[in-house]
TrEMBL record:
Organism: Desulfuribacillus stibiiarsenatis
Name this polypeptide is given: Pyridoxal-5'-phosphate-dependent protein subunit beta
GO terms (BP aspect): alpha-amino acid metabolic process
Swiss-Prot/TrEMBL keywords: Pyridoxal phosphate
Domain Tryptophan synthase beta chain-like PALP residue range list: 68-343
Domain of life: Bacteria
Length: 442
C-alpha cells in the first residue's frame, strides 16, 4: 500500500471487462478464486464474467418457463462471497477510500442490509482491512448470519424481517453519529447505482449476444436497494424499446399501490422507494407471490438438476416476474428477457426446511402441482403500468415520503425527476476510475 492507505482494487471498467486488468494480477486472481477465498486479490474477481471473459448466465429451458421468449438469467452466485452484492459493497467503499473519507484502521464500516449486501460488506471489509458492523433484521435465514460472522463482521440486529428495512436505516443513522463509523448506505449512495448501471447493465447487453435477435426486450429486477434495476438505465440507452420492470412481493406492494406487509422473499420488498431508484426508467411494477418463489425454488432444485444450486428465493422471484412479463408483452422466440439471480441456493437450505415443516409432505404429486400452477399457468395479473406521468408522480411521492424524514432536501429529490441527474451521476464512474488508478496501493 501507498501512504494514502487506499487498498488495491479494481476500477469500474476492470469489473466490467476483466481482460483489461494487468495479466499478472488477473492470473493471480483466477488462482485465488479456486484456492483462497480470503486473499485480497479476489477483489479483481468482482465481475459477471468468467475467466474466459464470458458473462455467467443460463438460458432457462422452455419446459420450465412455458413461454416462447428466451429468459436469460445472469448468475450472481459465482461472485466472490457468493452474491453480486459484493460489487456495490466494494464500489461504495473504494469511492470513500479515494475521496479520503474512509481510511483503514481509523473507520468502522456500517452495512445496513437484509442479507446479501451485509455478506458483501463483511467480505469486502475482511479483504480491505476494515472492521465492520452489519445492521439487519433479526428474522433472516441463519445462513446469512453465519456467513457474515465467518467473514469477521459484527451483527447488530433490528426487529422484523426483510420488509422492515426502515428500522435498519434508523439504527444506521444512530450509529453513524459516532464519527469513527462510516455507512456503506446501499439504499442512498450512488456507487451502488454506478456499479449496476455500468457493470451489470453492460454485462446484460453482452449476455444476449447470439441469443434470439440479440436485443433485450425486457429486464426484470426485484428492488431491495434498487441498485440492480439501475442496469435498466444502461439497457434502455442501447435498446430504447426495452421494458424495465420492478418486481415486488404481492404481500408487500409498496411501489405498486402503497401496500405494506410481511413476506418471505429475503432481500427485496423493503416498504420503500429507495433513494437511488431511478423511477423515470421503470415501465412496470409487477407483483409476485412469496410462497410461489419458495415453492418454485423447491421445484427447480428437485426437477431441473442442471439448474440446481444456481438460484435463491429472490432469483425465483425475478424468474417468475420474467415469465409473467413475457406473457404480458406477448414476446416470441426472437425476444429476450434478462433477469438476475442475486445469489445461489447455498444460503436457503433453512428456507426449504421451513417449507417442508409447513407443508408436512412434499411428494411427487405436490411437486407436479406446484410446477403446473407456478410455472406453466403463470398469469399476467398484478402488472401495473407506470409509463404515464401519473405513475411517475406516484413513485416520486413515495420517495419523498420515505426520504424527507432522513434529512434529504426537496430540491435534491426534485433533481431526480430529470434524466440529466442520473446520467451525470453515472458519468462519475470515469472520474472514480482515474482516482482509483492514481491512488490504489501497489
Amino acid at each position: 500500500m501507498t501512504n494514502n492507505k487506499v487498498p488495491f482494487g479494481p476500477t469500474y471498467e476492470e469489473m466490467l471487462n476483466p481482460d483489461t486488468i494487468n495479466p499478472q494480477i488477473r492470473q493471480q486472481a483466477i488462482q485465488a478464486a479456486e484456492q483462497n477465498e480470503l486473499d485480497p486479490i479476489n477483489l479483481f474477481n468482482i465481475s459477471w464474467k468468467d475467466k474466459e471473459g464470458q458473462v455467467r448466465k443460463v438460458v432457462l429451458p422452455k419446459e420450465l418457463t412455458g413461454v416462447d421468449a428466451n429468459i436469460v438469467v445472469m448468475l450472481g452466485t459465482y461472485f466472490p462471497s457468493g452474491s453480486h452484492k459484493v460489487g456495490p459493497a466494494y464500489s461504495t467503499l473504494i469511492e470513500g477510500c479515494v475521496d479520503g473519507e474512509i481510511l483503514p484502521g481509523e473507520h468502522t464500516i456500517l452495512g445496513p442490509s437484509t442479507g446479501n449486501f451485509g455478506i458483501g460488506v463483511s467480505y469486502i471489509c475482511n479483504l480491505m482491512g476494515y472492521d465492520a458492523i452489519v445492521i439487519m433484521p433479526d428474522n433472516m435465514s441463519k445462513e446469512r448470519y453465519e456467513r457474515i460472522q465467518r467473514y469477521g463482521a459484527k451483527l447488530d440486529l433490528t426487529p422484523g424481517t426483510e420488509s422492515d428495512v426502515i428500522l435498519t436505516l434508523q439504527r444506521t443513522y444512530e450509529l453513524k453519529k459516532d464519527p469513527k463509523n462510516r455507512p456503506l448506505a446501499q439504499f442512498e449512495l450512488m456507487p451502488n447505482y454506478r456499479f449496476h448501471r455500468h457493470v451489470t447493465g453492460n454485462s446484460a447487453i453482452e449476455a444476449v449476444k447470439g441469443i434470439g435477435n440479440g436485443r433485450v426486450a425486457c429486464f426484470t429486477s426485484a428492488p431491495g436497494s434498487a441498485g440492480t434495476i439501475a442496469a435498466g438505465d444502461q439497457i434502455k440507452a442501447v435498446f430504447p424499446e426495452a421494458k424495465i420492470v420492478a418486481l415486488e412481493p404481492y404481500e408487500c406492494s409498496t411501489l405498486a399501490n402503497g401496500g405494506l406487509g410481511q413476506h418471505r422473499i429475503e432481500g427485496i420488498g423493503d416498504k420503500m422507494c429507495t433513494l437511488i431508484h431511478n423511477v423515470l426508467t421503470t415501465d412496470f411494477v409487477t407483483l409476485v407471490k412469496d410462497d410461489e418463489c419458495v415453492r418454485g425454488l423447491q421445484v427447480v432444485q428437485e426437477r431441473f438438476k442442471e439448474l440446481t444450486g444456481l438460484f435463491g428465493v429472490s432469483g425465483l422471484c425475478n424468474i417468475l416476474g420474467a415469465i409473467k412479463m413475457a406473457k404480458y408483452l406477448k414476446l416470441g422466440p426472437d425476444d429476450n428477457v434478462v433477469t438476475i439471480a442475486t445469489d445461489g441456493f447455498d444460503r436457503y437450505n433453512s428456507v426449504l426446511e421451513e417449507l417442508a415443516e409447513r407443508e408436512l409432505e412434499v411428494t411427487d404429486n405436490v411437486l407436479d402441482r406446484w410446477y403446473r400452477d407456478i410455472f406453466m399457468e403463470a398469469d399476467t395479473r398484478h402488472v401495473y403500468d407506470f409509463r404515464g406521468q401519473d405513475g411517475k408522480e406516484q413513485l416520486f411521492k413515495q420517495k419523498e415520503h420515505d426520504w424527507l424524514p432522513f434529512g434529504y432536501a426537496q430540491e435534491y429529490l426534485d433533481a431526480m425527476k430529470s434524466m440529466e441527474f442520473w446520467d451525470s451521476e453515472y458519468e462519475k464512474y470515469k472520474e472514480y476510475d482515474e482516482k482509483i488508478k492514481e491512488k490504489r496501493g501497489k
